[in-house]
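Quick note —
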Amino acid sequence: MLIEPNLVYSINEVSEILKINPRRIQRMGKRHKVEKVDNRYIFKGSFLLLVFKDTIKALSQDVSQDVSQAFEVSQDIKPLLVKIQELEHQVIELKKELAMFEVADNERLEVFTEDDYTVFTNRLIEWRTQQKELEQKAIEIQEVKTDAKENVAHYKNLFEYQRKQSDRILEMHEKLIVTIGEQTQNSIQRNHIEAKDKNYL
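Predicted structure written out below.
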């Protein structure tokens, strides 16, 4: 039912429901002396059903036809809806598969031929081997540096010890020379005195 008999309608509402020009409705209201509220026509549903019965009947037939056509279209749509559901399911499955290949902002995805991948794998193994060798060399260099520092400290201590020993020996030699010199001087004096006493001089 387009119009309810127990309800009231304004000109605009009638025009929208029955698809009639508002001026025609206004003329109809004037002709039948329809009651006005606030200087506007207010139409009872029962009045509209009586006066515009032909228009309402035509509209009802159009609506029925539209409903029938819509039903027919809906029957045609059913297989399409099933297909859409299948496609949506496939999309969900594809999204799950693609989730495994999601690449973060700090990552990148590369595509290799079989030959390129083999070369890449071999280079990666070589790089790991070289990395281990470099780490071992770094350890050895550090050990050599540590040994060198220890050797420098050892030789420095040894040099200091040898210098002190040399200074002591030099001091001893100097004392010995002084002592020998003094003994020689005493011996010369004694010999000189003895020679005098024996009248050798």
